[in-house]
Each structure stands twice: as structure tokens, then as C-alpha cells.
Design a protein that fits this description.
two-stranded parallel sheet; 2 strands
């Protein structure tokens, strides 16, 4: 008759390892997702910034930038609807998180 193995040590005084919060790792205030208080200007946003929006993944972010680069600034949420993959539901979900300056984005991507 042997003893059971020792229970794992739990250190209550320390925060959990960073790996438990991997989706947030590396994100500071400057990289936080846009909110209604800090909307993202879709007329000049980068692919990386667009990718942080809800309902926008890497492929849609690239299509948004490509469309904007070829046809010019969106100017409004209705203008964003010209991008394939941005329907009424996506536009409505993004509306409180975005803004439109009408400025052309620098072509760095």
C-alpha cells in the first residue's frame, strides 16, 4: 500500500502564468481593440489595426485595404459595404467602433 502522488503546488500569491492569457499577450493600450470611445478610422487604418476589429479577420482586413487603395476612402459605413464580405450585419456591428475621415491612407502595405 503506497501513498498517492503529491498534489500540485498552488501558489496563491502569484498571478497565473502569461500563457493563460496568450490572446492578450503583447497588447498594450496602443494595440487594444477599438472601442466606441476610441474608434478606428477605416479610411487610414492598417491591416493589423483592422484585424483587431470584431468580425474582421486577416483576409477581410486585406480586402478592405485593397478596396480602399483602389477606389479611395470609404467616407461612411455605407461606403465600407462595397467591400466583398461586409454585409449589413458586419457593418452594423462595426459602426460604433469605427469612423471615417475621408483622407487617403499612405500606401505602405
Amino acid at each position: 500500500m503506497g501513498f498517492p502522488p503529491p498534489a500540485p503546488r498552488i501558489d496563491i500569491g502569484r498571478p497565473p502564468p502569461a500563457t493563460l492569457f496568450a490572446p492578450e499577450r503583447g497588447r498594450g493600450r496602443a494595440n487594444a481593440p477599438p472601442t466606441a470611445a476610441t474608434p478606428l478610422d477605416l479610411d487610414v487604418a492598417t491591416i493589423a489595426e483592422l484585424d483587431r476589429l470584431p468580425r474582421v479577420g486577416p483576409a477581410l482586413a486585406k480586402r478592405i485595404v485593397a478596396n480602399r487603395d483602389s477606389l479611395g476612402p470609404f467616407g461612411s459605413i455605407e461606403g465600407l459595404r462595397r467591400v466583398k464580405g461586409v454585409g449589413a450585419a458586419t457593418a452594423a456591428g462595426l459602426a460604433p467602433l469605427v469612423t471615417f475621415s475621408g483622407r487617403r491612407a499612405p500606401r505602405s502595405e
